[in-house]
């Protein structure tokens, strides 16, 4: 028995130098392994795959089926940690925009006490800007780990309240201790998550001493010379984390929901009032 010479039907129609005996199940053209896409039966060539996808999209539009955006919205609605996902996504987008703008975004959004009176968005946006890839990397890792735990434990809106109250606590501490220093990053809010998690775990009867040690070690790092870390924001975040965690632990009963909301609102009012007082005390100048 002799070998048959390779003809055109024995070679991939997209790569004539490659011999193959595999046919597209749909059109019958010869395709090599690189050009094959597995199908329910056999394999399909790239052209048939594109035609099928185009027909599928056309059928979806004609039948009124949900669009890709609608499907994405439904999938987002099914997430258990929506706020954590949004915080990380927004922080990453802001960091990328800052890199592309050469630092302009940080100058617009960073927290700086002399400007909060005329640019109040800085109270919140400072939590989403970061100075380097390592800065955002470590912070978002912490948000990913503890954010998911706390959001599952507290629910989305309580978690959001905790995050931003702790962030405002960091802002207030900076305004009182170093009002002339611009600050970026979510560290204050993250330390608030640590503190709140400790209080809640203790209230539930769990041993959380290890978390307290980790929090203390990270806090000490901020005091080391040359680290360029705002320990003031960390301290402020920890204090508000403890306070907010205590509020949550003492108002767990559904009948205390109004009391819980009232206490959280009171925290926010006092924090903003304190920042406002610090702003006024330094003259509210802008450089």
Write out key terms for the chains shown.
287 residues, mainly alpha, Rhomboid-like fold, two-stranded antiparallel ribbon, 1% strand, disordered N terminus
Structure description:
It is a single chain. This protein is an all-alpha fold. The chain folds into two domains: 9-62, no CATH class; 85-281, Up-down Bundle (Rhomboid-like fold). Helix content is 62%, strand content 1%. It has eleven helices and two strands, in the order E-E-H-H-H-H-H-H-H-H-H-H-H. Strands 1-2 form a two-stranded antiparallel sheet. A hairpin with a 4-residue loop joins strand 1 (37-38) and strand 2 (43-44). The longest helix is centred in the C-terminal third of the chain and has 25 residues, at 257-281. It is elongated. The termini are far apart. Residues 1-8 have low confidence and may be disordered.
Low-confidence stretches: 1-8
Count of helical segments?
11
CATH architecture of the largest domain: Up-down Bundle
Chain oligomer state: single chain
Number of domains: 2
Give the overall shape, derived from the CA principal axes. Answer: elongated
Let me know the average pLDDT.
83
Order of helices and strands: EEHHHHHHHHHHH
Secondary-structure-derived class: mainly alpha
CATH class of the largest domain: Mainly Alpha
Number of strands: 2
β content, as a range?
under 5%
Strand order of the largest sheet: 1-2
Distance between the termini: 91 Å
Rg computed from alpha carbons, rounded to a whole number of angstroms:
28 Å
Give a short synopsis of this structure.
It comes from Curtobacterium caseinilyticum. The chain has helices spanning 46-63, 68-77, 82-101, 104-109, 122-125, 133-154, 156-177, 187-203, 209-221, 231-250, 257-281, and strands spanning 37-38, 43-44.
């Amino acid at each position: 028995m002799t070998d048959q010479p390779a003809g055109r039907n024995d070679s991939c129609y997209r790569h004539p130098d490659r011999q193959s005996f595999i046919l597209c199940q749909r059109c019958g053209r010869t395709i090599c392994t690189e050009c094959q896409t597995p199908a329910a039966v056999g394999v399909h060539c790239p052209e048939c795959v594109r035609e099928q996808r185009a027909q599928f999209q056309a059928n979806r539009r004609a039948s009124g089926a949900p669009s890709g955006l609608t499907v994405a919205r439904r999938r987002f609605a099914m997430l258990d940690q929506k706020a954590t996902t949004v915080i990380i996504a927004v922080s990453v987008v802001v960091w990328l925009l800052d890199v592309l703008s050469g630092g302009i975004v940080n100058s617009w959004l960073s927290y700086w006490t002399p400007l909060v009176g005329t640019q109040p968005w800085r109270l919140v946006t400072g939590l989403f800007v970061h100075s380097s890839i390592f800065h955002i990397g470590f912070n978002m890792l912490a948000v990913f780990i503890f954010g998911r735990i706390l959001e599952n434990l507290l629910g989305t809106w309580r978690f959001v309240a905790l995050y931003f109250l702790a962030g405002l606590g960091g802002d207030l501490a900076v305004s009182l201790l170093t009002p002339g220093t611009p600050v970026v990053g979510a560290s204050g809010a993250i330390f608030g998550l640590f503190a709140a998690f400790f209080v809640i775990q203790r209230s539930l009867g769990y041993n959380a001493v290890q978390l307290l040690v980790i929090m203390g070690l990270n806090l000490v790092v901020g005091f080391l010379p040359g680290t360029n870390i705002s320990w003031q924001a960390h301290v402020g975040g920890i204090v508000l984390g403890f306070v907010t965690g205590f509020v949550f632990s003492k108002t767990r009963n559904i009948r205390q929901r109004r009391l819980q909301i009232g206490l959280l609102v009171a925290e926010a009012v006092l924090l903003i009032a304190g920042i406002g007082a610090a702003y006024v005390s330094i003259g509210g100048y802008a450089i």
